[in-house]
Amino acid sequence: MLKLSPAADDRFIWDLLSKVPTPEKGAKISRARLQTILSTHRISKFTGEEVLIILKETPLVLAEGAAEAATEHVLLLLPQVILLDQQLREVGSRIKQVLKGITGGEGAPPCDAGLILSIPGIGPAIAATLLTEASRPIRDRDYQSLRCYAGTAPVTKQSAKRKAVTMRQACNPRLRQALYYWASTSINCDQRSRRQYDKSRACGQQHARALRGLGDRLLRLLIAILKKGEKYDSNRRDGDQEFTTPAINDKSLVASLN
Questions:
Q1: Domain boundary among 72, 106, 140
Q2: Enclosing domain of residue 41
Q3: Residue 122 shares a structural domain with residue 210
Q4: Do the Cβ atoms of 26 and 55 come closer than 8 Å?
């Protein structure tokens, strides 16, 4: 099963597990039935024949009764997982409807929600998190407060002649997570963000540190768009000067004062 879905988080895997919970049953399922499951969930990366070959592979050797116990556990968990997935999809759909009502659709005057959604990498879930968890900084167009809320503003600790810059721990965890996903998505859909991320990595920063730095710059972009009152324009942004990112290790000393 893990060859078909490494995280076992695909809906067709759940359907398949409910019908063939053991290797013995999986080896006996027909090709036509497998193809029906794949077609129902619109899976095109596998054919019924390929899935059948995987299911017929020699299973792991387990102690007597272990397979039956694992099967019972899986069958008990599946309804809960399916229900949770359904609820998450319903909540996502409701968030989209609320944002659509706020933005007013095509031709409507620009509002904060519409301006935020115009930025690459921001989807309904991230936009909703920004609007609810950071409503005051967004309303006040306060970049410094927003970066503190999101945890991208570093903390400087100084004692005598030594100074250290560390990651901010006191922040809004939901906003920090949303910003992390925003930065992760932006490097795949925005060339400017990708260049900034690659530059940070070349300076020796770890993946999380590079994303945090990119997220801080995206927050600056967000506030600039809100202040201007105009939607994101990649052509105008590409003409701006590149940000430079120094190599900083969050857990080490970054400067010494003489």
A1: 106
A2: 1-106
A3: yes
A4: yes
- The reply to whether 127 and 224 lie within a common domain is yes
Q: Which of 136, 146, 148, 122 is nearest to 224 (CA)?
A: 146
pLDDT tens-digit readout, 213-253:
999 999 999 999 999 988 888 777 654 444 444 444 444 33
162 and 239 part of one domain: yes
| Spatial distance between the Cα atoms of 12 and 66, rounded to a whole number of angstroms | 24
Same domain, 118 and 245: yes
Kindly give, in sequence order, each residue whose CB lies less than 8 Å from that of residue 216, ignoring residues fewer than 6 positions away: 147, 152, 153
* Type of residue found at 67: A
Asked if 130 and 32 sit in the same domain, the reply is: no
Distance in angstroms (rounded) separating the CA atoms of residues 101 and 38: 36
Residue 47, classed as helix, strand or coil, is coil
Of 215, 213, 221, whose CA–CA distance to 247 is shortest? Answer: 213
**Whether residues 88 and 118 fall in one domain:** no
Instruction: Compute the distance between CA of residue 39 and CA of residue 195 in angstroms, rounded to an integer.
Output: 40
pTM of the entire structure? 0.73
Clarify whether residues 93 and 121 are in a common domain: no
Q: Are residues 133 and 249 in the same domain?
A: yes
Cα separation of 171 and 194, whole Å?
Answer: 26
The answer on pLDDT for 85 being more than 50 is: yes
Pairing of strands 155-159, 253-256: unpaired
Going from the C-alpha of 66 to that of each of 55, 61, 73, the distances in angstroms are 19, 10, 11
Q: Which two tokens stand for residue 225?
A: 């768009």
> What's the distance, CA 151 to chain centroid?
17
For 1, the enclosing helix (H) or strand (E) is none
